[in-house]
Write the structure tokens for this entry.
Amino acid sequence: MNDDLFSFSKSKFEHNSNSAARAAELRELIEHHNNLYYIQAKPEISDFEYDKLMHELISLEKKFPELATPDSPSLRIGGEPISQFKPFEHIMRMESLDNTYARSELLEYDKMICGMVGTTPLEYMVEPKIDGVAFTLHYIDGLLETAATRGNGEVGDNITENVRTIRTIPLRIQTEAIHFEVRGEIYMPKAGFLKLIESQVENGEEPFKNPRNAAAGSIKLLDPSITARRPLDAVLYSSGVIDGIKPPETHFAMFQLLQALKLPTLPRIWRCKDINEVMAAIDELETLRHSFPFEIDGGVIKVNNRTIYQLLGSTAKAPRWARAFKYAPEQAKTVIEAITVQVGRTGVLTPVAELRTVRVAGSDVSRATLHNEEDIRRKDIRIGDHVLIEKAGEVIPAVTSVLFEKRTGNEVEFSMPASCPVCGESTSKSENEVAWRCTNLFCPAQLTARLRHFASRDALDIEGLGERVASALVEQKLISNPMDIFNLNEILLSTLNLEQPTKFEVVNTSDQITLEQSPENSVVSSRVLGKSNARTILNSIERSKSLPLARWIYAIGVSGVGSKNARELAGIHEDFNDFANSKAISNAKKFYDLTEEASANNPNSQKASSLSDEDRNKMGVRYAELGREVDELVEKMKTDGIVSEKGENSSKLILDIKPEVCRAISKFFDSEYGVDFVARMNELGINPAGRKGQKTTGTDSFFQGKTIVITGTFSDGLARNTVSTLISDAGGKVTGSVSEKTDYIIVGKNPGSSKINKAEEIGTKRMTEEEMRKHLNLPPAAAEDTSLLF
Ligand SMILES: [Zn+2]
């Protein structure tokens, strides 16, 4: 037992035995309900009651930090972000398995193994092979101490903090073992994956390609609080180091042991007397492969008798006691009957293949994304073609190849329409993009998505205005422009008809993946929105009027302007009107235009080397002229706050705003839509303040210009991300590590010891959560509040 645990148990008796007992009781209760909910799928209490228990525990641990234990379920909400993963050296090598694709190879495998052991037949276990991320867990005295990825088999990454957020993994197990190492796979369930990419598409992020990538990406996030919100799960199926108990003699006994320890195990395994039963199990598994909540790509065959594993030994890279059998990726042949075009949120046109319905990987497929025009050309896909369809990662259908031998000559080549299929406006394609876009800002296809963006959390944060409400508002023509939300009233909203099932397709702007809405989502529980929902929305709308400039800039939804750019832009403008008539943007745009022209006129460029001396001289003159213009412009721009005065190269733009973004902003305010937007803002008297000239925003100006480090977590589910955003909104800069430049370290619950130590070492000023809340205009943390984001 280590010193921490000792001091914890001592203080428990010295200070508050009641609180300690209650904390212990809460931990046990929460783990019990965790198990019922996540493992057995038989919850006994509501989410609300569960959150209440968790909230009580977090409050207790906050009040008496010595009560926090290393197995507290409060750890599951994710702690401190880290700068990088520490390497973890495996005690026993983590091997991967040899793959087999043919059934005949399995028979040979059996012959070889039986030959080595000198017994026939041998008993095997067959398990579904999950396509996830291999990992290992070390329990020391029953307590989860380390989790690590496989890495190269010798050294992996220590991912303990992130693994603790996976609810099905127990933080403590009831075992006599001093050291118990258990291995398995982290995965993302198919349902969770679809939800995740749906929200990624909605947020304009690049979605993960398949559940495996999503699991790998989520478990390797440096901020565990984000990992905690990803729908990750795990299964455990083998062991590593076992010390202090007798290791099970068979693989089946191992499976039973893992189950008894309440570790997440595979939902189905087969115990086979001989290789013939293995073959039958492999066949049965193949028929069941799509019924698992996770993706599987085959089966794993394991010798049941663990006592002969050592005798069997390993090949150069894989153990001989197990072999993976991989199913061929499921494909189907069908015909492309038509190619249609969809329009996404930012106007991107996506070609979609309308297929003769065919069954692939357990479901009927009648449409598949064709990504973009280039992809169609590259694969030479034509209307009428016979094609091979495959579900990428078993989830999203795609056309893999054309069956050219079936061509009759009647196939028709596809070309992108010159006008938008929804609004009829002309489409365009910029040089460095593969996608064609509808550039009509009023295009109805883009309106719902534009409205959702306008109301999203990082934009105007209109609570209650989700997909269904947004679609209904657009479909029932109550809104034809996001600014129309300010014309809504309680009667209009409370009687909003939600019954119309809104078939929605999300088209990703960068990757063009189409999602079909799952049937259960279209079940509508109420006819109309109702009064209380209407009030929630209206209150948020009212509140949005006083949000800082950065939120409004982001809300507009100019292509390329993310929250970070929006905050930077808010920092150099006095208010919305200043931004709408921005000298800084027009100067930056001019700067980009001039420098581009200058580089095209560079007489020393490679392109110029083939020109005549006379032409080169002409270029040189123009080049020098442009250089002077750029210098003059940069001098002017220094007062815009857009150019860094630091460094020798004074022409370096401090704004990370790309030329196309500057151009897009200018274009927006020049457009009919932009002019209308500004007019409506003025009519409504909304002119949010920026931070130029230290104008105060919704919060006090305390954080203006200060560099802040945040450590630990906050009460009432206040996410660290939210705090960072609020501090940035208020003009502060949040950094990841403490240095001489840090003005304050904000200390929450379970603060990171390295940050605290560093802060103490260099004397950084500390700020409590209460003080921070005051400066950010947030209500004080309430013990009764159960709005825990859990
Ligand atoms: Zn359009």
User: Anything to note?
Assistant: The mean pLDDT is 82. The domain at 441-546 is CATH 1.10.150.20 (DNA polymerase; domain 1).
